[in-house]
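Model it.
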Amino acid sequence: MRNYLSAILLFSVFSILPASADEGMWLIQDINSALEKKMQERGLRLSAGEIYNADAPGSTVSDAVVSLGFYCTGSIISDEGLMITNHHCAYSDIFSMSTPEHNYLEEGYWAALREDEKPIPDKEVFFLKRVIDVTAETEVLKEELKSEGKPFGMRKLSYVLEKKYSEDTGLEAFLSSMWSGEKYYIALYQIYTDLRLVAAPPVSVAAFGGDVDNWEWPQQKCDFAMYRIYTAPDGSPADYSPENVPLRPVRKLEISLEGYKPGDFTMVIGYPGRTNRYSSSMETDYEERVALPIANKLRIRQMAIMKKWMDSDPDIWLKYSDIYFGLSNVGEMQEGEEACLKRFGAIRSKAAEEAELQAWIEASPGRKAKWGDLLSDLRERYKASENVEINKAYYRETMFRGTIISRTIMRMNSTRSGYDAMKKHLERGLKETDPRVEKELLRYAVEQYFSNVEPSFFGPYQKELLERFGNDFDSMVDYVWEGSYVTSPENAAKFTEESQFEEDRLRKLLTDVGILAFNKSENNQEHRSKILELQKEYTYALYEMRAEHRIPQYPDANSTMRISYGTVGTLSPRDGVDCSWQSSSAGIEEKYCPSNRDYRPSDKFMDLIHNRAWGRWCGKCGKMPVNFLTDNDITGGNSGSPVLDAEGRLIGLAFDGNKESLASDLYYTPDYNKCVCVDIRYILWTLDRYAGMHRIVEELGL
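Modeled.
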């Protein structure tokens, strides 16, 4: 009965206008007439059917938008399978290609000829072909499985339905749940696996300003990279082969060189990863007060250790740049999230809605019987699990994630292929890390672990070390370091048989306790399982209340294709501070610093900037437009998403958010959430004037 009513309520929800013009990552297949009208009122000059329509002949704008492994978004911009995305989405690929002799991160990579395009192994790109509402079918399947005494959770449902739809269509099928099971959809994808890197600027250009400018405004980043998708000669998906040919796409995005101005309509289509805006005030409180402060405190110091060594030695920089890049991006995001949750009163706002929710529940005997104790139960479970979760957080950030060398330990510890496989993992770990960096990271991890985790959680070997060395963590780390095969080539040479690894001191330290020990303590597993169950009911209840009150709502992001709409505009981050909607090449000149890696593009690049050699890409501009702001609603996974104008033409790429938006995964803040974009004209100027990639410019028909 609930699902039948939900379908009616869902129809009514989407039959009214959104309450907030720009909030929302709307399902691409659910652009109804009301949302279409609202976007057109804001300036859109397309119909909903021109954006997505799997049943109409021809192609739509969304056919040109792809997912890169569901961690980033890209778009097709030529008739020969050329795909553009963010540089930071390609960072790991560029890193893996780089050597001390050819550091493509610092030099950039430019395929002057088609045959120079570099194959990237294990890369997948997903083209969405159709989305099917399978809510009714899923509910029937649930009941069948339940009656047969079989599991009927999401894993089992996905296995059955994805297998069925893949076999029926010949496409890759993925089941997704919206609003914790209110709706279910199958998305069908065509997957291509032969991707080759075509163009990537130096990191000094792509990430100008580095971590200092990350999440800030203004920025001046040329954050783009280009790949080409190849197919078998008959056009079908195929693994890499020299015989493969460029993809002939059904749709490409047209590029606009006309620019934009404040108030102009923009839309972003992409694959946002995860949001949790249906989180309770209790969950938000836990994140703000416990989880984020612990992770932020520890990661700041870990990053400082890495950066110190990276700045001292180019070889260390090359080894750790990919790791540091990912860690710093997440670290800065979480610092901002903690600050924004406090600044914008997220807990207070959620608690106010929960008071309304409780009153709505109490107003109906049926709702009261079902959800009367929901909020109080959720509050009690969070309180009961907090102590163990604090200890677990410290363990996770120290023994589990506190060093990079721990990955080598985990790989060796989990292999079931014998000595040869373990030796390969050991050799790989030594190649990927530097012992000086790792020992200092371990020293910090050990101190934080033994100083913050309650002794009752320590394992027997950890207690033995503590009894022997006390708080002399230097001596403790020296002892562990000397007795490990993974800490130096000299020690690794002594590793001659599988059984020796059992006595490796670093292995014993890091694996003496596991997550399971924390989960079992104080019935914590029961508490956390119950929290998940209650949170699901909380989402149901909140959804139903909002639907009854005719409040428009969209499901949390979950790596399915979404559309958000907004306009180009300014930012007022703090009282009395107003920021422009656009940055330019002047900012590059102002920030340039030859002694700072983050602000040091090459002399060639700076000469072009100084000479104002904009050519056809900016006409009579005195300054090249570089980055710009919109108020499109985005999150992780939207990186590389096309930013489109009112006619669906490409004007830029989404690559970042602003610091004031960093609570948005849990709580959306109107007027402060901004999407930071790189101007397509700046990208094309870099390709043409700096890199000399004239063949690509010609291919684009410009």
